[in-house]
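[step 3/7] inverse_fold.run input=structure_tokens len=300
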């Protein structure tokens, strides 16, 4: 292997909904993190792997840093802060179309304490006039020093190759941690659960999304068949939310299942039978043992 091969870990940090998952999926070249227009979509550190002849970048897509309002919220913010201590580089993403806000000040207060290099990544530049970019960047530069400032559009792919090249420059020479064809270190069962949750987020109203957890209870290939049977439970906190998730005569749950099955089949490259159930676990976001059961605490 070339002696110049570089590898390392990069954290994606930013307010909820600034495009962290979109950027990681684009660079990795495959969906490994779910995307939604609802805040706090990402609940677990998701490792996405980008490998080229020059090096390997392992991305940690952390939950958006925000002021927590529940035990789950506290766990999510702590997960994001812990990620900053584990990496070689931090990408601080901001939304150019939203402008400078209090949430960003809150994040920069955490970032200033780091010795790790921090890039300011200005996302969604396709949504603003170029004349607005420099004054916006200056606002952030006045608050803290950044190793690099990179304007991009994660959705359109603008300037993302430049960002990848700059990341590699900051990573140390090192080994290839994952095989060249591996894009995430999460098991398939986790990704399947996330794809189901993504469809719930897209199809439900405001009172449902944050109270939803998905647990894939089993994935088994049928004997003498190419069909994989997937059994999953969508947990929510209240009976009223369960009713919304199921929908009239099961219509919403059926739609969730259809959309999720199409993406799972693409992921696994095989036909899927998806069996979905909805169950109520009251106030699970504030129950420590349920947070562990649902995969939000790994205590590592």
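[step 3/7] decode complete -> sequence:
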């Amino acid at each position: 292997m070339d002696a110049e091969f570089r590898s390392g870990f990069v954290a994606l940090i930013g307010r909820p909904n600034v495009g962290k998952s979109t950027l990681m999926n684009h660079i990795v070249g495959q969906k490994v993190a779910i995307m939604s227009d609802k805040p706090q979509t990402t609940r677990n550190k998701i490792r996405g792997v980008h490998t080229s002849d020059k090096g390997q970048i392992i991305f940690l897509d952390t939950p958006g840093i925000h002021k927590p309002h529940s035990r789950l919220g506290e766990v999510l913010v702590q997960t994001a802060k812990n990620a900053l201590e584990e990496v070689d580089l931090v990408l601080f993403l901001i939304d150019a179309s939203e402008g400078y806000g209090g949430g960003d000040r809150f994040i920069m207060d955490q970032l200033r304490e780091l010795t790790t290099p921090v890039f300011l990544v200005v996302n969604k530049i396709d949504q603003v006039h170029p004349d607005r970019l420099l004054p916006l960047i200056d606002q952030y530069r006045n608050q803290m020093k950044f190793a690099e400032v990179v304007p991009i559009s994660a959705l359109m792919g603008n300037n993302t190759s430049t960002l990848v090249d700059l990341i590699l420059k900051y990573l140390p020479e090192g080994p290839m941690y994952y095989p060249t064809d591996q894009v995430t270190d999460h098991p398939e069962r986790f990704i399947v659960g996330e794809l189901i949750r993504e469809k719930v987020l897209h199809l439900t109203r405001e009172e449902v999304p944050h109270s939803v957890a998905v647990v894939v209870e089993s994935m088994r290939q049928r004997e003498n068949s190419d069909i994989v049977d997937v059994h999953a439970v969508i947990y929510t906190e209240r009976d009223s939310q369960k009713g919304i998730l199921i929908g009239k005569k099961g219509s919403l749950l059926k739609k969730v299942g259809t959309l999720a099955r199409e993406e799972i089949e693409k992921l696994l490259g095989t036909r899927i039978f998806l069996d979905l159930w909805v169950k109520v676990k009251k106030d699970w976001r504030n129950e420590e043992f349920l947070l562990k059961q649902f995969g939000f605490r790994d205590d590592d």
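[step 4/7] annotate
Confidence is low (pLDDT under 50) at residues 34-44.
The beta strands are 6-14, 46-51, 55-61, 89-95, 118-123, 148-151, 213-221, 228-236, 272-280.
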